[in-house]
Amino acid sequence: MTLRLGLTGGIASGKSTVSRIFAELGAIIIDSDVLAREVVAPGTEGLAEVVAAFGPEILTEDGEMDRAKVGAIVFADPDKRKVLEQVIHPRVFLRALEIDQAAGEHDVVINDIPLLVETNQADRFDAVVVVDVPTELQVERMVRDRGMTPDEASARIAAQASREQRLAVATYVIENTGTLEELRERVRQVWDQLPR
Ligand SMILES: CC(C)(COP(=O)(O)OP(=O)(O)OC[C@H]1O[C@@H](n2cnc3c(N)ncnc32)[C@H](O)[C@@H]1O)[C@@H](O)C(=O)NCCC(=O)NCCS
Ligand SMILES: Nc1ncnc2c1ncn2[C@@H]1O[C@H](COP(=O)(O)OP(=O)(O)OP(=O)(O)O)[C@@H](O)[C@H]1O
Fold first, then answer.
1. Where are the domains of the chain?
2. pTM over 0.90
3. ipTM of the predicted structure?
4. Model confidence pLDDT, tens digit, residues 135-157
5. How much distance in Å is there from the Cα of 193 to the middle of ligand 1?
6. 14 lines ligand 1 (CB under 6 A)
């Protein structure tokens, strides 16, 4: 039987890093952030809908969605965020299902979904892996690595579920407060515990 896992965690918790380690161990990864980019690529119906809702000023000169501009709009206004999500989420969901259906019987498929809790998807999976870090560490990483101000980082965190809400749906918790080597070891422990 294909084993289907949901993987989630707050912004900058280390989800992508954990996904990469699972991929090295043999999992198939479906990354919602990647799909969320594909569904608004130039020429897509998704991008046309975003332009209809937010205006052509959210396009770059190359005709791509200006992610910094859209981010500044939607993380300052929950109603606008909802409009964007209504365009993107159903399309991401359908693409993820298509990829999932191509998986083989013995595969472990890991769906990396930042908003798994917010979009109520925990029950779709055989197990849920939560990458957990203290909020201060999320802010520190976003400021250090992504050039955000502490206020911008906090606005993104505030747009997401709380640590407690995520931990409440976790089958496995991967704490990511140590070194990358420690993270790798913890991911391997979870991999070895998976029911297969
Ligand atoms: C707002 C956008 C343009 C900002 O783009 P940007 O390149 O700066 O960020 P990126 O897409 O790499 O997302 C980084 C992280 O931000 C957080 N995030 C993104 N969208 C949301 C949201 N709607 N609500 C809460 N957190 C979010 C997630 O933790 C995500 O991993 C982009 O995130 C987007 O299109 N969001 C809406 C789609 C969505 O909900 N994506 C998340 C999972 S499908
Ligand atoms: N244990 C660790 N030690 C040091 N740096 C780390 C560790 N884990 C992750 N990082 C770094 O922190 C940053 C965020 O990690 P990553 O991109 O994996 O998070 P994410 O949860 O996928 O983020 P997002 O929600 O924005 O997609 C990256 O630059 C990554 O290299």
1. 1-27+107-196, 35-104
2. yes
3. 0.94
4. 999 999 999 999 999 999 999 99
5. 31
6. no
